[in-house]
Every structure is written in C-alpha cells, then in structure tokens.
Amino acid sequence: MPSLDATLLLIAAWLAIGLAGMLAPRSLRLASRVLFPGGAVAGLALAAVALQAIFGSPASRVLPLGLPDLPFHARIDALSAFFLLLLGAVAAGISTFACGYLRAGEGQPPGLQCLCYHAFLASMAAVLVADDAYFFMVAWETMALSSFFLVTSDHRHAEIRRAGYLYLLIAHLGAISILLCFGALQAGTGDYTFDAMRRIEQPAGWATVAFLLALAGFGAKAGVVPLHVWLPEAHPAAPSPVSALMSAVMLKTAVYGMLRVTLDLIGLPLWWWGVIALAAGLVSALFGIVFAAVQTDMKRLLAYSSIENIGLIMSGFGLTLLFRGFSMGTLAALALTATLYHCLNHAFFKSLLFLSAGSVLHATRERSLDRLGGLIQRMPWVAWCALVGTVAIAGLPPLNGFVSEWLLLQAFLFTPGLPHAYMNMLVPIAAAAIALAAALSGYVMVKFYGVIFLGQPREARLSETHDAGPWERTGLLWLAAGCVALGLAPVTVISLLDPITRSATGYGIGSHAGSWLFLAPIEPQRASYSPLLFFVVATLLVVVTWLSVRVFYHGRVRRSGPWDCGFPHLDARMQDTAEGFGQPVRHIFEPFFRVTLETPSPLDSRPRYRDLVEDRLWYWLYLPVARAVERVTVLVTVLQRGRISVYLMYSFATLLLLLLFVR
Amino acid sequence: MSAAGIAAQFAELALAVLLAPLLTGWVNQCRAWLQNKSAPGILQPYRVLAKLFQKEVILAHNASPLFRSAPYLIFGSLALSAAIVPTLGTDLPLNEAADAIALVGLLALARLFIALAAMDVGTAFGTLGARREMMVGFLAEPALLMVFFTASLISHSTSLSTIVAAIAHRELVIYPSMAFAGVAFVMVSLAENARIPIDNPATHLELTMIHEAMVLEYSGRHLALIEWAASLKLFVHMCIGLALFFPFGIAGGGDWLGLVLALPALAAKLAVGGAALALIEMLSAKMRIFRAPEFLGTAFLLAVLAMLVHVMLEG
C-alpha cells in the first residue's frame, strides 16, 4: 500500500479508537487494556510507514472530504514523513505508558479522555499530511481544541480552568496569524492549495509579511518568547501523558509548520529572516532555562525547559535561513540537520521526563519539589529511566542531546565565513549564548533529578510509595532506549534527514557524514565524533577501574549513619530545597525576574518566609494589552442592546456591506 | 592511525593516570616552599591513595547504587578525557572519536555525576556543595567552550589534534585572541579545579568549601578514586592549557623519535605549570562565594571577547 494511504488509514484508525471509547465511557478496562494499547500499536505502525515514506517520492491525493468545491488535499514528502515518524514513535511510548496511568475517578471519565487523546493524535498527524490551507487549519484547530479539553480534563480546579483559557486564547491568536499568513501566500489567486502557493513567485514584501505572520503564529504554538506564557501554565495542568504529548509532539508540529511555510511554500530566501528567528530562538533558550532553574513545581520546570529547547531549535532554524539566504547550501543543510535532530531528541527525552514526573506524581500525589526526595530507593525503575533522560537533556555525551548540540555548535563555528561583516561579529555572541544555555540546562537537571530522586524523603509518607507498573515501565523504557539509540547512531539518523535537507537546501550531509562509526558532517579533519567508540572506551575504562580495584584491593563495605562532619541530628529539612538550589541563578540573573519577597520581622511569633518569582513580561506586555482590550470592550458594549430586532438589523447591515465588497 | 599513534595513545593514558597524583604532589610541594612550610614530600598523594584503598568503605544507610557507582564513572570519564588531550603526540586514534566539544561534554558529565552523588545521602553539606559546584560549572563550562572555539576558529577545526598541530607548526605569529583566551582559560581552570580564589583544596572550613563538601560522605576506595580523579582533572586542565598555548615539543604523526623527546618536554612544561599554579594560589586570596559569579563571568566575557577579537582582527 502506498505510504500516504497507509498514513491516512492510521489517522482514521486513531479516530475510530477514540470514538470506540465512547461506547462505554466509564469503563476503565476498555480504555486502558484495549483502546490505548491499540493506539500505541497504531503509533508504531505509523512510525514504520513514515520511515519508508522518507525515502519515497512525494505523493499526494485529493480526499473525498471537506466542503463541496473545496476538498481536502493530502500529501506526504520527506519533511512530513520525518515528523510523522517522530509522532508515531513517541506516541507509541506515551500511549503504552498511559495504559497504566489512567485511573478511575481522575478528571474526565476514561472513555472521554480516550476520545480527546486519540483525536489529538489524529489531528496532529493530519496537520502533518495536510496539503491545503483549509485542511491544515481544520486539523490545526482540532488539535488545539482536543488538547484544550485534555488540559482542562480536571476542570474542577479554578487554576486549571484558568490555564486552559490562557492556552485557548493564545492558540487562537496564533491560528489567526497563521490564517492571515496563508492569505498572504495565496497572493490573491484564491487558490489555497499548497501546490498553488509553491508555484507563486512572491514579491519580497509579501513574502516577508507571510514569514513574519508564520513566525508569530507558529511561534505562539511552539512557545517562543514572548508568546510562551501559556506553556508553563498548561503543561502542569494537563495529565502527564498529555503534557508529554504536547511538549514532545505538539510543539514540533509548530516547528513543522514553520519549516513548511518558510522552506517550502515561500520560495524566496532572504537572509535577514534568519537573524530574526535566531534572535527569537536565543532569547527563548536563555529565558526558558533561567526560569526553569528557579521553579519549584516539577512539571513547570520541565515546561520552561521546553521553552529552552524550542529556543535551540529556533536558533538552528534561524541559522539555516541565514546560510540559505547567502546560498551556502552545505552549511544550511548542516544547520537544518541539527534543527531536525534536536526536534527528534527533544521529543524523546522530554516525554521521558514528563512521564517520569507523572509516575512520581501518581505515587506521591505531589508536584512540588519541596515535598519530594529519596525516591530512587522506592522507585528504582522510574529513577534510572529518568537518569537517562536527565543526562540526555543536559546535552552530555554519549546520549542524544549532545549530538544535536554538537551539530548546532559546529554550524555556528562556520559562521565566520559569511559574506557579511556585521553578522560575522554577532554570531560568536550567539554561540556563547547557546553554550551558556546548554551549561545551565545541566544545572537545572541536577536540581530536577537530585531533589526528586536523591537525598532523604522530605515527607514521611514518601517512604511508602510504590514503583511504576509494568505498562508505565514499558513506556519509559521505550523512550529511554530511544534516547540511547539516537545518541549512539547519529550517522543512521542523519541519513534519514538527508532527503529533507536535499529538498529544502539542495544539499545533504548524509552522504559524506562519515562512515557508520564516525560522524563527520563536513570533513573529518574539521570535526568528527563517534559516540559508539566514545561509549565503548568510556565503559571499558570504568569496568577496568572497577575490576582492578576489586582485584588489587577488596570490596568490603560497612553500613552506618551518614557522617555529615560529625553532626548527629541530621534530618530531611536540612537538605537544600528546590528553591535553595535555584538561589544562585536567581542571584546572578536577577534582572530577568520579578521577585516579591516577604520576610518575617525578628519579633514575629509565627515567622513566615514567602517569595514569589514571576515573569516580568506578564506585567510589561500581557496585562497592559489585557487592560487595553477591556477598555475597548466597554466601548463595544454600546452595540449590545439585548434586543433580537437590533441584532437582526446588524446581520442585515453586514450582509449589505459584504455584497458591496464581494461583487 | 599508525602504530606510533596507538602507542602514543596508550602511553598518554597510562602516563596521565599514573602521573596525575605526582603533579598534585608537586603543586603542594611548591606551595609549601612558597609559604615557608616544610613540604610533605612529592609522593604524598600516592601514600594517601594507598591508605584510602586499604581502608574499608563506610556507606550511609540510605546511599543508593548511584552513590556507589559514581566514583567509577567519574574516574572513567576523566581518564577518557586525559586520553583525548594531545600531550605527547597529535596522532591519537581517540581524537577522531571525540573533539574539543566532546571533551567539554565529558568534563561536564563527570561534574554531573559528582554533584548527583553529593546529593544522594541528603546531608546539608552535600547539597550545598552540589549547588555551588553546578554554579561554578554553568559559568565555567561555556567559558571553556569559548576558549576552544577561539582556537578552532584559528585552526578551522574542533579536533584537538588538528588544533594543536595547527598552532604548533605555524610560523611564529602572535594572536591577540589567544592572549584573551589564555587569561580566560587560567581563570576557568582555577575554578574548575577547586583552587584559590574560588575554592581552597586545603580547607575543611564548612562555609567556604565546594569540592570538599561534596565528597564528605565518601570513604575508603571510593574516596581514593574521587581524589585520584580530582588530580586527573588538574592534570587534564594543565595539559589542555599546554596544548593550546604552548604546544611546542608535541610530536606529529608517526614520529617515534618525537614521541620519545615529547616526554621530557612535557615533564618540564608540567613542572613549570605546576609551579606557576602554586604561585597564583599563593598570591591570591580566597573569594567570598558570592563573588565567584563575577570572577567566572569575567572569564566568560574574556573568552567571548577572544572570539570577537579573532573575527575582527585576524579573520
């Protein structure tokens, strides 16, 4: 079967699985033992289909769906196949985890959650295969709405409703922007198929308008600063598999949209677009990671870290545009490879960490880092899987996070060759910002892992927690294995990315990315990296060290109380809290934060210490806009008369006006 | 990859692992001389290691497997980093497997594990040390990376062998960028190796310590491995400095005679470097921990400046 048909069939299968959940909405058994496993299998199948489609030639077809005269067009090429692969492979792990994660009595009934969840999956896949603006927008909005219902699945809490509202609002601002972008792209022809848009030669002005609208629209979905505020609210509110799916895949559909519009639909490469994307990416990366360092809620911390990773992806994208604008094809291919590789990596390690956080949340009913600790003893499976995610996201060799950061830094190291003196000077600063963000992510992840899994339990009841069940373990292990495989076999992965870079930039680095063992993106003397050899030698050294210590000395161990400089009354309150751990970052990057500090006076009988770290942008940008909107609303209420005849007159007047314009 | 290369690779690894405590002993010796104290003898670190290996390990009740495996992981990664840096010859098989960025990543990996291990038992000092170490790390790591970037912009490569070969076998040209990078590198190395002015390797005063606070719970063979790894780290940093800024005497590919001659050259350079380190430590005072970010921020800015200088003046 052609891969496009198989993909469409699998999208339909996801929808059918979702609808089947409504047969018995209250049955947990049906959802968690039949439907979600089925969804996971469909995800695996989708990944397999997409893997073949990457190397196939683009295929398209018109679907018998949509409005009369305005049918849906679907198309699969290397770019959409790559993102379908990402979606399928990650969704398989997350769905497997969700089988064990669903509980009775949490939020919506399981059948309803199953419907929203699978509709969400299907709509994301539909976004990736859509080949006209109409289908794209329908799928995009279905994605936004289904995820909105998933986010607000526990809608009894006011803060969750608030988070959902904020999410919906920004999702729609983004959607309007994307709609306008398609409007600019069709250039007055009235033909909204992507095929027509590709053929149009845009003047530079309109192309720039379309690019900026796409950047704003897709940036809002991806969480690029300053349109990021919904992300740290919505991710913690959603159930963990949904947060994993949103962070790992939904943000990537926004990246896909950005790549589709700029690299495929707009034919015109202007180099300074890259500078805008690069600047937005760098700001997001630094902003996200600095905020992640001061969070005390584990899911908020991960959400801010997603902003950082999207920032890295955006920087790679900006660099791609920059090189493409100066027609430096090989380097554009290198930067694009780093961008796509990081998308794949982030999907794996971030979903792994969100799911680990979900397991911890279920076992302890606690999201605040300040009440966790020592869970490696009680939850070893989750703890060791989370360690893989931690090392991967911190960008350390030999796992996957390092490979994409390595490629990105390599791309940055080539920028002094740009034929533009001013850019040459600015780009080293950009490389420094990337390095700083990467180093800070190590700090954040030590905090995340150390406070949750290491040390002593900060609450007595934590010593009664249980490890994750077999379904959850399988999901976690699948994603952890993905992190390891993507880290150790970069040359294979890059050969998958080759067809995409070839169609977007005319060059591919896969063919000369080195032998199977060595990754050498440009040429071996310039830079090479072999994670497999690296891993083998490191393991060998560790094993030799261990063996020689055993052989030459002894393995005696005596258990006793902790030493702690001889201090006898050690208790769990003496460890650093999450807040204490974030203090140096708060101190160093003070201008980033708006801090409200309440300290007790020396005479307080019940001293309380409270501090609140907030986002300045909220006060500088969002509240003024919200107030302005409110003022405008007051003016508009003049129209609101509450009488049906007046409203009918409005409709009549609108129709008249429209007739005047359209004819 | 030649026979000489493989020989150089093994010789380097063995040399680093075996001689690293000697370098620590030499630095301590010089410092004792400068402070007009009687020195403990240059072989003292070996005696300490031998003593620690003999002793039994006392583990806290709640120490996890991560705590027990961390010393081996840290030692292994630092030994690997010692194998990557060209000290005797530039023709190293492992250099194709890991370049300068991977070396920085490897050092960060060791840091991540030592910080996690410090948090494992859950003592006040352990977490405090971990937090401070990671703070030093997130400022020092990008600075170190920028130093490497400056060198790789000059040599058009991130492979350490190529960088060293390019810098060693060029005509004598003075690169102003390398001067900036050199100062930044010295500052970063002082911080990374827990030396004065950021940390004091000789102190056990609780409020000021970083490295020592992290390893308080370790004993016996675990502590021995961590101490050995710390001297390896100093050795590696010293060798990076020598390779980037004074790469003279490092043998090229397939040059057996050069390899043999590189050994005394390396010993001499290390002796001078160790003495210089002792002198720096003697002449500066320990900073308050709150001022460490300023110190490291300066190092970071100097390193970025080095890159800018290269792009503007030498590009």
Straight-line distance between termini of chain A: 46 Å
The largest chain-to-chain contact, stated as pair and per-chain residue counts, equals:
A-B, 83 and 82 residues
**Helical amount of chain A:** 55-70%
Order of helices and strands of chain A: HHEEHHHHHHHHHHHHHHHHHHEHEEHH
- C-alpha Rg of chain A (nearest Å): 26 Å
What would you call the shape of chain A? Answer: globular
Largest sheet of chain A: 2 strands, antiparallel
Polypeptide structure, described:
- The complex is a heterodimer of chains A (663) and B (315).
- Chain A has 663 residues and is mainly α.
- Helix content of chain A is 69%, strand content 5%.
- Chain A has a domain at 269-549.
- In chain A, helix 5 (133-151) packs antiparallel against helix 6 and helix 8 (204-222) runs antiparallel to helix 10 (240-265).
- Chain A is globular and about 90 Å long.
- Chain B is mainly alpha-helical and 315 residues long.
- Chain B has helices at residues 3-34, 44-54, 65-84, 100-120, 124-155, 160-168, 176-192, 211-214, 220-245, 256-283, 292-314; one strand at 57-60.
- Classes of the chains: A mainly alpha (663), B mainly alpha (315).
- Chains A and B meet through helix 15, helix 16, helix 17, helix 20 and strand 3 of A and strand 1, helix 3, helix 4, helix 5 and helix 9 of B.
- Strand 3 of chain A pairs parallel with strand 1 (57-60) of chain B.
